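[scheduler] slot 2 assigned
[scheduler] job type: sequence-to-structure, two independent chains
[scheduler] chain ordering preserved from manifest
[runner] begin chain α
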Amino acid sequence: MAILFSAITLLTVYYAVRQNAEQRLQQETAVLSQQLVSQLEAELERHKYLPTLLAENPEAQALLQTASPLPDAVLRVNRILKKANRIANTADTYLMRPDGLTIAASNWDQASTFVGRNFSFRPYFQQAVQGHLGRYYALGTTSGERGYYFASSVRGENGQIIGVMVVKIRITIQESGRAWQAAHFMVADPEGVVFMSSNPAWRLHSLQALSAEVLASLKQNHRYADTAITPLTHLRLDTTATLQSVSDGHHQYLVQRTGMESAGWTLYILNDASSVTRSVVLTLLLTAFMLALTLLLLYLLWKNQRQRREYEQQAREQLEAKVEERTRELRLTQGELVQAAKMAALGQLSAGINHEINNPLTAIRAYADNAAQFLDIGKPDIARSNLMEIVGLTERMATITRQLKTFSRKSAGQIETCDLHRALDSALGIIQPKLAQTRIALEQQRADNTRYVQADLVWLEQILVNLLSNAAEAVQEQAEQCIWIALQQADGQVCVSVRDNGPGISEQAMPHVFEAFFTTKTIGKGLGLGLSISYRLARDMHGNLGVRNAPEGGAMFTLSLQQAADGSQP
């Protein structure tokens, strides 16, 4: 019975926990898929309008309509494209004639300029010259960098197409990091080629073997330069299934497939399914342990009851033997009286024993009977509750066991070599929606020897977000809203300065800027904790955060951190 009961309990727990863990994994995978799709679509939609807007520029139109444009006219258009490229934070912006020849570009003053290059083979150009919005993802034939291209036709006064305006953007979704340790993602183009993935080994591989026609088309369009596209033979995905389970030979994954119709992409989220096994194994171990304790308690109670019965039987037998020996020579009446006295004594003894053991035994028997009945009628949860009442006497032991199994750790920042430029880009990406709704002009000055510092990446990003957000709020009332970011190196330290052209900080408020709960904002706008927390995090990273009013006006916050080995990654 004990073995049968244990087997039924473990099977019930196994199926319940496994189903719950699988549902939780599916929900987590769906959330990751929705978040990444939203981020990708937001990246694309944010710059979708730009080539159409630039195509309306009169100087660009005039340049296309002039057979032999003057160098000054070309230079003006180059500078317009460069400025637009910098403000929009795009990769490249360039203007092409109807034959595909580039006549102006934002990188006109660089060695890898697009000016003079012909990109008529690109599908985005072919779409634009037909009057459609060109959209295309590819490796740059000149830069070799991955990017997404938007192209819009430039029309003359009579409506005819006289050229094409192209904007290339970088997809800034992080392909590696803490968010993709237990899960991975892949983004595939319409041909099934993975061009973006958190696993570098999957990039620029196809989900299935490509036909000769598709390979020839990719080569003709130079979509992925000269990279040989080979299939992922160790990861066989069903490209039509929304939800599936696959293995790469090392890990089992739950795969969520989501289509992105606007870009023609397909997103795959591969979530590690080992968490299901871990949850099931851990729960089964805990259940088996509790069952073992329960069965051990029942065995001890049964053994104790049996010993008591044996002891009582032995005591009765010994008493009877003594009474029989002492009353053998007595008359029958004397024997009956002795027997009556003996039975009275036994009745009193039994009453005392029953008082000691009946209450817990009755409760245990009632809980056990109820548990058996609830199991028979298919209510294991209520049966488990009764069994937990039986093991109440072992509560202290169970508490100690749970405490030994409990592990807690204090989360502390780990100071290591961090990419300051990457942290700044991440912080700018976080506040980008806020900047996009305002007229704030953002200028940056970075040097190569300021790239690597000793810090905690999460803390560093938190400080930069606080400083940039405060600067954006400080310039809201200004006619011209400007924020300057400067990265400088001096005396083994890298300094990040964030300056705005706001009203600055008053002399009365200056000594209290980094105090907790101190704020000059109106009620409901802030708690006054951002700068206080940033100051503490900077000190914890062996750095410093300071503030002063700039001579040109506005406030300037400076974050100083220790530079990593000669400003480069070790």
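[runner] end chain α
[runner] begin chain β
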Amino acid sequence: MRFQTKGAGHRAVLVSSLSLLALSAGGAAQARSEEPSTAVDQVVITAARTILPASALPMTVDVVDNESLTQQVAISGSVIDAIATLSPSFSPTRQKLSGAGETLRGRSPLYAINGIPQSTPIRDGSRDGYTIDPFFVDRVELIYGSNALQGIGATGGVVNQVTVGPPKQDGVSGRVMAQTTVGNDLGDAVGGKLAGLVGWREGAFDATAGVAYESRGAFYDARGRRIGMDNTQGDVQDSKTLSLFGRFGWQIDPSTRLDIVANRFELKGDGDYVTVTGTAAAPTDGSRATRLPTTAYRGVVPGKPAQGRVETVSASLTDDDLYGGALTAQLFFNRSRDTFGGDRNATFQDTSIAPSGTLFDQSSNRSRKLGARASYERAVPGVEGLTATVGLDALNDRTEQLLIATGRAWVPPTKFQSLAPFIQGNYALLGGKLRLAGGVRFENVELKVDDFTTLAFYGSRKVAGGNPDFKATLANGGVVFEPAKGLRVYGSYAEGYTVPDVGRILRAINVANVDVDTYLAIEPIVSNNRELGAELKRGPFDASVAYFWSSSKLGQLLVKNAGGIFDVQRQRVAIEGLEVNVKARTPVPGLDLSAGYARLRGRTDTNADGKVDTDLDGANISPDRLNLAADYQTGKWALRVQMQSYLSRGMQSALVKDDFEGYTVADAFVRYQLPVGAVSLGVQNLFDKQYLTYYSDTTLPAKDKIYAGRGRTATLGWETRF
């Protein structure tokens, strides 16, 4: 069992076609399950719109419940860091605002809030891990592997953040939290957070509103050196975050509910530090040759500091007793604006504007989504044991990337429209011991790009716009067999779908006479995932093992160009992996031990001969990992100690030939219940291990801009409910 503290997270399997339609954002099902979930079946029914138990579904899902999530956020400060710590096959984070290169099973996951996608696949700004404050997240559902019915982008899996539910009883309730964080320096490393949530319920109506504000200081490594800022992509250190949350519900009748959920999240860099890399005059400021990480000094950052803003509004209607089945319908609006830091990068230079090497610029991604989803599920009349789900998803996405200092378009306004009906069935045989599951999704996509001209760096090429469209039939199927109580084995096949980072491809066109309608590089990525798994839940043991392999004929790789900007290359990609997780209750009351291991290998085809021949590098696959943890609860005390060991890997056969040395870090958490509220202490990197982050250690061999990981960092917090 993964992600579990005592009485906390639970393990489940979920068929690849279950669509996270934000059902946890509202609905009668959620209203009935507001009590803390102790059975994963209850959670899956809410989040994945199915009336079936978890044991009926043949794919892997991990659920991080509120207790586990609270612990991890107290240690690391964010949802994405919590998930990356707990899941062995999730790559270690960059500890920056950008999540580029962070993968699940070697592929990009789809981040969602109540099922609403937060990604911008047309021009991936890689900020989708920071779109809501964790104070407003009740639990996180992590779905592994390619999954077409999650919508566009779920080739590696889905990270669905389920927000807090409505109040349980009539009257006023809420909670308040305050915390402070300190690093190796008690000056500019100090940060703080205040958050509050108030709920009201009266009869059929309820409302919840909250605000969270956080100020982060500078980060320091284990040697007491300030960690370099990523002034271009964005950093979470030296920043301020304001998050607003609201939820309004109406229980129309006993089976029908309307929910409106709104969230606004903004993270702004303060711009107080300038990153310095090694030079002949100052070799101590960062050097890859000596593995001395980049540092930062106080100074004025030119232009606007990097920042991100996301606004999401959804309306969900659920009826769990409509003609013998369950209906869920949702409308949503999502808008994001990501500003990146600026510089005089070679890519931005244009001698028609300023002399070469003198032109300063910075970019901003702007994306707007409008979507609708609906599904209906019920037992099929006249066919005992057969349950069917039918649905329809629609999405309209408009994205562009502007150079805001000069008013140029780096990526032209690009529209993406998708209409996708689907059907899914689950058939129980032999009294439910054997189940067959399968379904199909019909994806209809149109991309619209107007005529545009690329930047001078790419030759000021005139590109003819167009309306390329793609149609795909995406299938999935699986079998679940339960030969004995507590033992399950399953196998599944699922196809996932996404578009490549179209913006990167379009902006990098450097040849003449290109017509978008016939440009091969914007064809979609279809990945398939095959998985075999087994679970044992008997007595004090909860164990699971899964082996998977996935491939895509026309995949997507990030490759750095001469200007230091990542471009997209389309190549065949094949990935395989093994995941093992074990948890055991010990004879000592309240003490649980757990372990997790993941081994991943990936290769790509670099010479277009149809055969994979080169290993994936650190920007495209995570390292092997071993997780160990111990949880102990007694009386008013709760304690956790955990370790993550990222294993070394030789990369001389990879795209980027920069070996990974590996490192091991440990964290600790303790919580004590007070007469009023509870006080907690989370410590990240308990033994103050000095290391380089995986991403910067394996993807930038020709650059001295490398970042150390955070040294020992402590967060003291207090929280109470009323």
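[runner] end chain β
[qc] chain β: Residues 53-721 form a domain with the Maltoporin; Chain A fold (CATH 2.40.170.20).
[scheduler] slot 2 released
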